Amino acid sequence: MKVLMMMLASLVLAGCGSPAAFNYTLSPPMSTSHVPAVKAVGPYALSDVTVPPEADLASLVVQQTDGRVLVLANDLWTAPLSSHLRTALSLELTTRIGMPPVQNLAAGAGDSGVTRIQVDVQRFDMVPGQYVAIHALWRIRFAGSNKVMTCFSRLQQPVAVGVSALVTGQQQNTQQLSAQIAQALETRALPTGAQCSGV
Questions:
Q1: Which residues pair with 146 in a beta bridge?
Q2: How far is CA 103 from the centre of its chain?
Q3: What residue spans define the domains of the chain?
Q4: Mapped to the 3 state alphabet, what secondary structure does 138-150 carry?
């Protein structure tokens, strides 16, 4: 009887434990089938990415159709969103250009020969079962010239119900944003799918 009571007590305590947390990334697994050729864009640096303060958490933040916002305490990015998004964009640019940004090298900190990229995410929306969206204003100041390109990207994906669908949709948006930035870096011309001025 005593053994049975101890087993019941342990089951009750186990049931009272916190649910397991799940971690998500905006960077899908990198393909190892080929190594991208290095594009002739020169050294470039990606500044800190800004996001709306209410979304700049490690927890995923989702919107309801009635205007409510829910913070998913057990569904987490691998870092606060602004930091994680910068890492994701950096990895995507590395994949597309074949060379990573130089911001982590001391030599690139104040070098006028380094192209500068700034990204201001103005909306990072996740509406379960409906859509995910990224609206981003971004600027490239090209090295060795006075050329500045300023662009606005509106990216949106329909999504099914579930947290994984939200994450996959935002991965696609992040990839599209990095593709537009990479195209502008490579061509110094207005990229496809963004509203731009300058250059």
A1: none
A2: 17
A3: 44-55+81-197
A4: EEEECCCCCCEEE
pTM: 0.85
Instruction: Find all residues with CB under 8 Å of 29, minimum gap 6, and list them.
Output: none
CATH number of this structure's domain 44-55+81-197 = 3.30.160
Find out whether 149 and 130 touch, Cβ atoms under 8 Å.
no
The 10s digit of each residue's pLDDT in 124-181 is 999 999 999 999 999 999 998 888 999 999 999 999 999 999 999 999 999 999 999 9
Q: How many angstroms separate the CA atoms of 61 and 187, rounded?
A: 36
Q: How many residues does the chain have?
A: 199
Q: Which letter, b or e, does each residue of 8-46 get, where b requires 16 or more Cβ atoms within 10 Å of its Cβ? A: eeeeeeeeeeeeeeeebbbbeeeeeeeeeeeeebebbbb
Sheet of strand 148-158, all strands in order from the earlier edge strand to the far edge = 44-46, 115-127, 131-141, 148-158, 195-197
